[in-house]
Amino acid sequence: MKLVLAILLSCLLCGCGYHLTGQEGSLSGQYSRLFIPNVSNQTSEPYLDSILTTQLSREIARQNKHTEVFSNDSADAKLLVRIRDFQNRAVSYDSNDDIAEYQVSITVDAELFERTGQPVGKPQTIKWQSVYSTSDDKMSQSDAEQAAVREVCQRLAIEIFFQVDSLIQTLP
After folding, report:
1. Which of 61, 77, 163, 164 is the most exposed place for a label (fewest CB within 10 A)?
2. Cα-flanking dihedrals φ and ψ of residue 141, to 5°?
3. How far apart, in whole angstroms, are the C-alpha atoms of residue 92 and residue 79?
4. CA torsion angle for 24, 76, 29, 160 (degrees, to 10)?
5. What's the helix, strand, coil split of the chain in %, to 5?
6. pTM of the entire structure?
7. Smallest Cα–Cα separation from 67: which of 57, 81, 82, 53?
8. For residue range 68-107, what is the model confidence (pLDDT) as tens digits?
């Protein structure tokens, strides 16, 4: 009876994606340890690089497919991310012709490199946006804008790792 129960339990654990500690969750063990240097910000918007770097670290920990390492020497690959464009523009107006909503849009370039410096696949350009409402209270509006920026950076981090995993999956 115990043997049957043990077999059933092992079948359930294998089928649900559970894995033992120490086993790599990466699609390809060849690129399981990633070095992600600080994001480069080529816009005039301050702190975007810090926000996106933090979101990338959170996403790599959440997905559990790769391990983030903090030096190029211990990495299998390096992920370079560059913020290319930031826009915050009005997208809707109220009946008084005042701005009712803004849209935050961020475009990044992401590229994966082998430890040797050779690129893995083509660079990816990723863009995400979020809309937030205006407010008569400038502090509330600033808080809404910052929340939209954090949301966009979080979505960009998710999309960057989706692109990385898709690229790794197509490798021989």
Report:
1. 61
2. -65, -40
3. 37
4. 80
5. 40, 35, 30
6. 0.81
7. 57
8. 999 989 999 999 999 999 999 999 999 999 999 999 999 9
